[in-house]
C-alpha cells in the first residue's frame, strides 16, 4: 500500500460518510410530514416499483426521451459494477483485480460496459440537444429559471465527463498492455501486465489520439482513473443537493405509490369525527368534550406548510427530477394559467429544505414565520387546478402534485374561509338546497314531468 | 307519463314493498340543467326499453358533495355524503347507476369509508352489461350510421377510474367511425369543468380550457363529439359554439346517441 492508496481510502470514506449524513438529513426532513400508512399490500407495491422504477414503464409513454433515458439509466447502473473493482484497486493498489479471476468473461464485461458507455453518451447528447438546441418548451417554463436549469446541465456535463474518463482509461490501458512485460518492468509499470487481449470495442477508436510513450500513457491512464472515481464520488455527493436525487428516491417513491383509483381523494378523519358527532342524535351538543386519554391537540385542516403535508407528499418532492411532464399535460398550464404542477413539487422541496436548515441551525421547534402557502405557492395557482389527475398520470415516478394542491385548498377553505366568492356561493347552495345551483330540492324530479 | 318515460321513485316502490334492481342516481346537473336533463331522459328511455326495474330518489336525492370536496370543503362534503348514505342505506340500496362521472367517482371511491358501500356503475357500463346479458339489442346506428364520432374522456370516468372501453364499446355498436383525439384515454385532457371550476370563473390565462379541448376534438373532423358527463357536455357544447361550428358538429352523451339511434 502506497501513499496513493491511503489518499484514495480517505477520499472514499469521506465521500461515503458525507453522503450518508446528507441522506440522513433528507430522511429526517421527509419524516417531518404527517403520518400516513402506506405499508399495506407489499406484493402490489413491489410490483409497482418493479414496473415503474426498475422497468421505466411510464418513461416510454414518450418514446424518444424514454428510450434515451433507459440508455443512461441502464448504462449508469451497470457500468457502476466496475466501480466495485475500482474501489478494490484503489484501496489495495492492485490493477483490474477482476481481470485475472474472470479471464475472457472480464474482457466481455468491459466491452459490454463500453457499449453501454457509448449509449449513455448518445442519450446525454440527445438530452443536451433537447435542452440547448431544440429548446423544448417545458424546459423553459418560469420555474426553470436559474438553479434548476444549471442543475440539469451540470448533471449532463458531469455524466459526459465520467463516460469520457472511463473510455480514456480503457484506451490508455489497452495500449499499455500490448507492450511487453520487460518493457513495462523497465519503466516500473509492471502492474499493467494483465491477461487482456488487444483493445476494447469502443475505446480502441481513441487509442489513435493517444501518445505512444508508455510513461505518458500510464500517466493518462492514472489521471482518467482518478477523474472517473473521484468524479463518481463527487457526483454521489452532488445528488442530495440536486434534482438528480431521483435516481435513488424513484425506488421507494414508487414502492409507496398510491394504489387506489386516482379519483379517490382522502376523507379527512378530523372532519369525519366532527361530522359524525353532528349527525349523532344522541350527542349532547352542550356537553363538555370527554377528556380523552392522551388526547392530541387537533391538527390544522389541510396544509399551510410542509409539516402539514404527509411524509409521502414530502418524499414526492425530493423524488421530483423536474422533467415537467406533469406541467406539459396540465390543462391549466397549457391555457396560460399560473399553475404548474412541477412548480408545486419544486416549491414543496425548496420550502422543506429551508425548514430543515432552520432546524439544523435553531433546533427542532424553530419557526421562521414563513410558510409554503403564500410565500411559495399562491392561492391563484391552487384555484386554477381542475383536479383532472393528468399530472399524476404523467409522472414517471408516481408523484402526486394534486394531493398537495388539495391539502392546501382545504386549508384555504376550512382554516381561512378564503374561497373565491363564486365557490362560497356554491357551498351555500349545496348546504341549503342540496345542489351547487340555487334550485329547490323539492323540484328535483320535475324533469320527469317535462316533455321536450 | 308515457311508458318510455316511466320514472318510479324509491319511496313509491318501497310503499309497494318492491325493491328495484338498480337505483338511478340522477345528479344535480341531470336534475336541473336543461341540457343535462335530456341526457337523463335518454338514460331513462334506455332503462325502460331494456325492462330494467329501476327507481330514482327524486326529492330525497341531494348533491353527493363532490364539488364541495374538490374545492376543499371537506365539511360540506362529508355532511352531504353522510346524509345521502343514511338515505341510501335506509332503502338498502345495493347497486347504483349514474350518468354523472363525478357522482360515480365519489360514491364509488369516497363513500365506502363513510359507511356507504354500493356497487356503483356509470351508465355506459350499465348499458354495456344490458347488451351483454341480451336485455338490450342495438339495431345499428340509425341516423348516426357512417358518421365520424370522437369520444372525449371525462376525467373522473376515464383516468380517475380506468373506464375507457365501456363508452367506446357502445359508440362502436352504432356503425360509426370512432376517431380518437391525440390526447385520449389515460392522456385525455380535461374539459375545464373539474375541480369545481364549473362553478367559478377561470384564473387569468391566455385561453379557456374548453376551447383548447374543443380544438383538439375538432382536429379529428368529427360529425359528433360524444362524451359521458353532463359537465363535459356543457363545456364542449360551449366550445363548439365559440368556434362557430354548431351547425355541423353536435355534442351528445353516449346515452343520447343510443336513444336517438334506437328511436326511443
TrEMBL record, chain A:
One Pfam family, short name: Fer4_9
Domain of life: Bacteria
A single cellular component GO annotation: plasma membrane
Domain 4Fe-4S ferredoxin-type span(s) in chain numbering: 311-341, 375-405
Keyword Membrane: yes
UniProt-listed PANTHER family: IRON-SULFUR-BINDING OXIDOREDUCTASE FADF-RELATED, IRON-SULFUR-BINDING OXIDOREDUCTASE FADF-RELATED-RELATED
Protein name: (Fe-S)-binding protein
TrEMBL record, chain B:
InterPro entries hit by this protein: Cys_rich_dom, HdrC_iron-sulfur_subunit
Domain Cysteine-rich, residue spans: 22-108, 149-236
Record's keyword terms, sorted: 4Fe-4S, Iron, Iron-sulfur, Metal-binding, Oxidoreductase
Residues making up the signal peptide according to the UniProt record: none
Keyword RNA-binding annotated: no
UniProt keyword Oxidoreductase present: yes
One Gene Ontology cellular component: plasma membrane
Single GO MF descriptor: 4 iron, 4 sulfur cluster binding
PANTHER family membership: IRON-SULFUR-BINDING OXIDOREDUCTASE FADF-RELATED, IRON-SULFUR-BINDING OXIDOREDUCTASE FADF-RELATED-RELATED
The protein, known as: (Fe-S)-binding protein
Native organism: Salibacter halophilus
Amino acid at each position: 500500500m502506497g501513499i496513493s492508496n491511503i489518499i484514495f481510502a480517505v477520499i472514499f470514506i469521506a465521500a461515503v460518510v458525507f453522503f450518508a449524513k446528507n441522506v440522513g438529513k433528507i430522511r429526517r426532513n421527509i419524516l417531518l410530514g404527517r403520518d400516513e400508512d402506506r405499508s399495506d399490500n407489499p406484493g402490489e407495491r413491489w410490483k409497482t416499483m418493479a414496473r415503474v422504477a426498475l422497468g421505466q414503464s411510464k418513461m416510454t409513454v414518450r418514446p424518444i426521451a424514454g428510450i434515451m433515458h433507459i440508455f443512461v439509466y441502464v448504462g449508469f447502473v451497470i457500468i457502476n459494477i466496475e466501480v466495485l473493482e475500482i474501489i478494490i484497486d484503489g484501496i489495495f493498489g492492485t490493477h483490474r483485480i477482476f481481470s485475472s479471476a474472470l479471464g475472457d468473461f472480464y474482457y466481455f464485461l468491459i466491452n459490454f460496459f463500453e457499449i453501454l458507455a457509448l449509449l449513455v453518451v448518445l442519450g446525454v447528447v440527445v438530452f443536451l440537444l433537447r435542452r440547448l438546441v431544440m429548446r423544448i418548451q417545458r424546459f423553459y417554463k418560469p420555474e426553470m429559471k436559474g438553479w434548476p436549469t444549471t442543475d440539469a446541465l451540470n448533471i449532463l456535463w458531469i455524466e459526459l465527463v465520467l463516460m469520457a474518463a472511463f473510455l480514456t482509461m480503457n484506451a490508455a490501458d489497452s495500449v499499455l498492455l500490448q507492450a511487453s512485460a520487460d518493457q513495462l518492468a523497465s519503466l516500473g509499470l509492471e502492474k499493467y501486465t494483465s491477461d487482456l487481449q488487444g483493445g476494447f470495442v469502443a475505446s480502441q477508436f481513441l487509442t489513435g489520439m493517444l501518445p505512444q510513450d508508455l510513461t505518458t500513457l500510464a500517466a493518462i491512464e492514472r489521471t482518467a482513473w482518478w477523474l472517473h472515481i473521484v468524479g463518481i464520488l463527487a457526483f454521489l455527493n452532488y445528488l442530495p443537493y440536486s434534482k438528480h436525487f431521483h435516481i435513488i428516491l424513484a425506488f421507494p417513491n414508487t414502492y409507496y405509490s398510491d394504489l387506489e383509483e386516482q379519483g379517490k381523494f382522502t376523507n379527512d378523519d378530523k372532519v369525519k369525527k366532527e361530522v359524525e358527532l353532528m349527525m349523532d342524535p344522541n350527542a349532547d351538543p352542550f356537553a363538555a368534550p370527554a377528556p380523552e386519554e392522551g388526547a392530541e391537540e387537533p391538527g390544522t385542516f389541510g396544509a399551510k406548510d410542509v409539516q402539514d403535508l404527509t411524509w409521502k407528499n414530502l418524499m414526492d418532492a425530493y423524488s421530483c427530477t423536474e422533467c415537467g411532464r406533469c406541467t406539459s399535460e396540465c390543462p391549466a398550464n397549457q391555457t396560460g394559467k399560473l399553475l404548474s404542477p412541477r412548480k408545486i413539487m419544486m416549491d414543496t422541496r425548496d420550502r422543506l429544505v429551508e425548514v430543515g436548515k432552520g432546524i439544523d441551525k435553531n433546533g427542532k421547534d424553530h419557526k421562521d414565520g414563513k410558510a409554503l402557502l403564500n410565500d411559495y405557492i399562491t392561492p391563484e395557482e391552487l384555484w386554477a387546478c381542475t383536479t383532472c389527475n393528468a399530472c399524476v398520470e404523467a409522472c414517471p415516478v408516481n408523484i402526486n402534485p394534486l394531493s398537495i394542491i388539495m391539502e392546501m385548498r382545504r386549508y384555504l377553505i376550512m382554516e381561512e374561509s378564503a374561497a373565491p366568492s363564486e365557490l362560497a356561493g356554491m357551498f351555500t347552495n349545496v348546504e341549503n338546497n342540496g345542489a351547487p345551483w340555487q334550485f329547490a330540492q323539492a323540484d328535483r324530479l320535475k324533469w320527469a314531468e317535462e316533455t321536450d | 307519463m308515457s311508458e318510455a318515460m316511466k320514472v318510479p321513485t324509491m319511496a313509491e316502490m318501497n310503499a309497494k314493498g318492491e325493491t328495484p334492481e338498480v337505483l338511478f342516481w340522477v345528479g344535480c346537473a341531470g336534475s336541473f340543467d336543461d341540457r343535462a336533463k335530456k341526457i337523463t331522459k335518454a338514460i331513462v328511455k334506455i332503462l325502460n326499453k331494456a325492462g330494467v326495474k329501476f327507481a330514482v330518489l327524486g326529492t330525497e336525492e341531494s348533491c353527493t358533495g363532490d364539488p364541495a370536496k374538490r374545492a376543499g370543503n371537506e365539511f360540506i362534503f362529508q355532511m352531504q355524503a353522510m346524509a345521502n348514505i343514511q338515505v341510501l342505506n335506509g332503502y338498502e340500496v345495493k347497486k347504483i347507476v349514474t350518468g354523472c362521472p363525478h357522482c360515480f367517482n365519489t360514491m364509488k371511491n369516497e363513500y365506502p369509508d363513510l359507511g356507504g358501500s354500493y356497487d356503483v356503475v356509470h351508465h355506459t357500463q350499465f348499458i354495456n352489461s344490458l347488451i351483454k346479458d341480451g336485455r338490450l339489442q342495438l339495431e345499428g346506428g340509425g341516423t348516426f350510421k357512417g358518421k365520424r364520432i370522437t369520444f372525449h374522456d371525462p376525467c373522473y370516468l376515464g383516468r380517475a377510474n380506468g373506464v375507457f372501453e365501456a363508452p367506446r364499446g357502445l359508440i362502436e355498436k352504432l356503425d360509426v367511425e370512432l376517431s380518437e383525439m391525440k390526447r385520449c384515454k389515460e392522456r385525455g385532457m380535461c374539459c375545464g369543468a373539474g375541480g369545481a371550476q364549473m362553478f367559478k370563473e377561470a384564473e387569468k390565462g391566455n385561453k379557456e380550457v374548453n376551447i383548447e379541448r374543443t380544438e383538439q376534438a375538432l382536429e379529428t373532423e368529427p360529425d359528433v363529439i360524444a362524451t359521458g358527463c353532463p359537465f363535459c357536455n356543457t363545456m364542449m357544447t360551449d366550445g363548439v359554439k365559440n368556434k362557430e361550428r354548431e351547425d355541423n358538429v353536435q355534442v351528445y352523451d353516449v346515452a343520447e346517441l343510443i336513444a336517438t339511434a334506437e328511436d326511443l
